[in-house]
Amino acid sequence: MFKSLAERFSFRRTSSVATDSNTRTLSEHTARLSVEEHYASAEDSTSNSLKKQDSLVSSNTTSISAGQSVPLVGVGSDGVPRPDPLPLASGVPRKSYDSKALPIRTDGSLDYDALYEDESDNDLSMESHGSVVTHLLSQVKIGMDLTKVVLPTFILERRSLLEMYADYFAHPDLFLRIADLKEPRERMVQVVRWYLSAYHAGRKSSVAKKPYNPILGEIFQCHWDTPELPTGDEASNVEVQDGPVPWCRRDQLTFIAEQVSHHPPISAFYAEHYNKKISFSAHVWTKSKFLGLSIGVHNIGQGTVTLCDLNEEYIVTFPNGYGRSILTIPWIELGGTITITCPQTGYRADIDFITKPFYGGKKNRIQGEIYGPNDKKSFISISGEWSGLMEYKFNDGSKPSKFETFVDVNSIPIFKKKVRPVAEQDENESRKVWREVTAGLKMNDIEKATNAKFQVEQKQREEAKERKETFGEWETKYFKGIGESWIYTTPLLHRLTLEKRDSKR
Fold first, then answer.
1. Parallel, antiparallel, or unpaired for β 380-385 and 389-394?
2. In 363-485, which residue ranges form alpha helices assigned H by DSSP?
């Protein structure tokens, strides 16, 4: 609900969306991204620069974690001690799993599914990686675009940006209730409620980190069960084989994301619930800049909630993201004004994400107003913190003018997404693509993670080179480009329209 220094120096989340092709941006969830690789993409660097980054993780016999060190085999041309890299010639990553650190199956193999489901995390100690930070700062200037800057592996978040975008639906019940409301005014209020509840779920660490920058063609699929929201009897809940997750039923909320472009790095994602006749489609790409002691992420794109039975759309944009305190303990905040508009009904909302003042003040504050068609005065005001309690009051006299709970994200359940086992996934699905990087990070073995990451990115570079030599073009699988937008190829509204037409024949 959301790719993506996509801050996401840990920015999770985020997705960005704009109300039209000129629309504004997202950077969070952008918020949730972590210094996203989108911005500092190792994929855009040479293998030498990647190895330079790897070597910075250690110094003479660099301590990676308690009781762990990386042996050095010399000094690189850059004067930095270089660790012994994993053998890449064979194309087979080294696997020496510690059963005490990682989940191991009875056959001795690594349980990747359990690894991804484990959301526990070790706090990032910037003090122990000061040389890396210094190296990063030596590459940048104030206002510089960070796309070509190489980010160190130790700040990665152990999941792909595409998976992060699924956090927009951490509260699927709030999303699905939009379709149940009878009045357009109520639906607009519920869209805002769902939207504002989406950001906190992407923060899985007290320290800002960044998800993996998706490779071109990468896919992520998942779904949610919502048993407390019955949507039909068992007989009617058959599999939606022409939907985004063909093994899921009509009473499940399904999600798919695809990395549709590498330059610029664009992610597209789509979710639908067949029985509720509601869907959400979005695309986002980001720009990031170095701001001195922080990183700013600007997301470009837009998202649209579609109510199929009503032919009603709600177009949303997203806030900017900022990675603060990058020299000490980095953290994420959102800033800027976003809009939510419904062209069919005329309802609209303006939400300000307020950045923390340098002295005093609170983090994660929001202030919002919801307007009726053609109204200059809002009928609802909202205030609070997107990471906690948000309250609202009516301004039009329809109800007592006092603040009441709009949504308290800490008192409502987060629904766990369900992902099919890694062993059953295709080679380009997120968890399978990044599984060895994830294992290395979980072990706190930065050497293992860095080399596994290099292998993934090197394969992408080789494929890009081959396409260039054969004059081939990349073809997306689930989304198609229309102007500056990316649209899911077979959205629910389109399929329902065809079903109605066929039923009349």
1. antiparallel
2. 430-433, 435-442, 446-469
Q: What are phi and psi of 468, to 5 degrees?
A: -65, -40
| Burial (Cβ within 10 Å: 0-12, 13-18, ≥19) of residue 465 | exposed
Burial class (CB in 10 A: 0-12, 13-18, 19+), 226: middle
Residue in 377, 351, 250 with CA at minimum distance from that of residue 26: 351
Question: How many C-beta atoms lie closer than 10 Å to residue 463's C-beta?
Answer: 15
Peptide linkage before 343 cis (omega within 30 of 0)? no
Q: Domain residues of the chain, as ranges?
A: 138-333+414-503
| Whole-angstrom distance, CA of residue 423 vs CA of residue 427 | 10
pLDDT at 28 over 60: no
- pLDDT single digits (tens) 394-430: 998 877 778 899 999 999 999 999 999 999 999 999 9
Phi and psi at residue 467, in whole multiples of 5°?
-65, -40
Identify the three-state secondary structure at position 275.
Answer: coil
Reading the block at residue 20, the tokens are 């039209």
Show the tokens assigned to 88: 């890449």
Provide the pLDDT for residue 394. Answer: 93
pLDDT band at 194, cuts 50/70/90? very high
Name the DSSP class of 43: G
Tally of helices (H runs) and strands (E runs) in the chain? 10, 23
Number of CB atoms found within 10 A of residue 246's CB: 11
Global confidence as pTM: 0.77
